[in-house]
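Good morning N.,

You mentioned wanting to compare the apo and holo forms, so I went ahead and generated the holo version with L-homoserine. This is what I fed in:
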Amino acid sequence: MPLVAHTALPTFRRLQEEGEEILTPDRAAHQSIRELHIGLLNIMPDAALEATERQFFRLVGACNQIAQFHVHPFTIDGLERGPEALAHIEKYYESFEQIKRDGLDALIISGANVTHDHLQQEGFWQPLTEVFEWAKENVTSVLCSCLATHALIQHCYGVERTRLPAKRWGVYSHKVVDRSHPLVAEINTRFDVPHSRFNEVFRSDMEKHGLKVLVASDQAGVHLAVSPDGFRIVFFQGHPEYDDISLLKEYKREVLRYYRAERDDYPPYPEHYFDEAAQRLLAEYASHVQAARHGGRQLKAMPEEQIVERLDITWRDSAKAVFNNWLGKVYQITNEDRRLPFMDDVDPRNPLDL
Ligand SMILES: CC(C)(COP(=O)(O)OP(=O)(O)OC[C@H]1O[C@@H](n2cnc3c(N)ncnc32)[C@H](O)[C@@H]1OP(=O)(O)O)[C@@H](O)C(=O)NCCC(=O)NCCSC(=O)CCC(=O)O
Ligand SMILES: N[C@@H](CCO)C(=O)O
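and this is what came out, ligand included:
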């Protein structure tokens, strides 16, 4: 929550010049204090559906302990779902119709599993663009994760993602590119973010279309960029919401696919993720898996618990800091009526007055 400049102390002006949000006493007195409503469009596959809920709910909840947040999960058609996930959605999720009726201040769109060469061939493409077209007019800011980022960059700017020669998979060091932007103001200038994707939209393509790149990695590419207006669409290519175990779960899935001969090569480790001791345990396990596959023998379980003990989470604090900046800015400019995106004096073409 922002500071109020309740005296003439020069420090207020100095902090403001450095990017800190400072309210004048008059602005503070007239601010309409209310809860924020954030939609979570969850399009992750069944096995990760509830983990994804927990991850984004946690980031929203943990980023700011003072404001109150209502998170509204919903989903769209065109995704393959089993009976359990369908029952969960039926029981706990809101419909898009309901979301549209009540309005949102902010919207998060999760990543998803890729199954086709081109995103417009995915069953969820049309429903996803419908949600986006509504959000563009009615929601203060939309934050997209990974595949949602690729889909909306294609939809809005006509740039197709590029298939990478090898999956970008691991935990990578990133640097803040534009320290003055309010989304990354006052946070660490170098921090980790996990990535897990077969595709990429490159920095040059983003910049060609006026997107502003805010956080990037030499090894992993762009993590964070915003739409040309500076705020209305926030693009994540990485997964700062991931738990410590998420990449391990994906690695285990790939090892099991190898054992079942669904892939020919033994999966590589996600980069910069397992320490030496974990790698020793996993190398031993790999010998067992290879022998079991070729000898037609039963597979022993991966020593997951021993590995989990050795995993560090080196990205969560920065993830919370970015979310806190994002939701703080949404709060400052969103209308008191949650169905309207902006207060009357906010310019939708430059909502942060940058
Ligand atoms: C890898 C799996 C299949 C693992 O799920 P499983 O059910 O097999 O796991 P399990 O070992 O049986 O363990 C089940 C327990 O782990 C939890 N669990 C499962 N997946 C988790 C995850 N990713 N992070 C944290 N916890 C997780 C479950 O909630 C459950 O917890 P409890 O027992 O406590 O309930 C799943 O996580 C998954 O589908 N992940 C991939 C998601 C994905 O497709 N991401 C792509 C986004 S990236 C993107 O957008 C792609 C774009 C591109 O490629 O270009
Ligand atoms: N943007 C509003 C808060 C949400 O009602 C204000 O600053 O008054």
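DSSP finds twelve helices and eleven strands in the chain.

Happy to go through it together on a call whenever suits you.

Best,
F.
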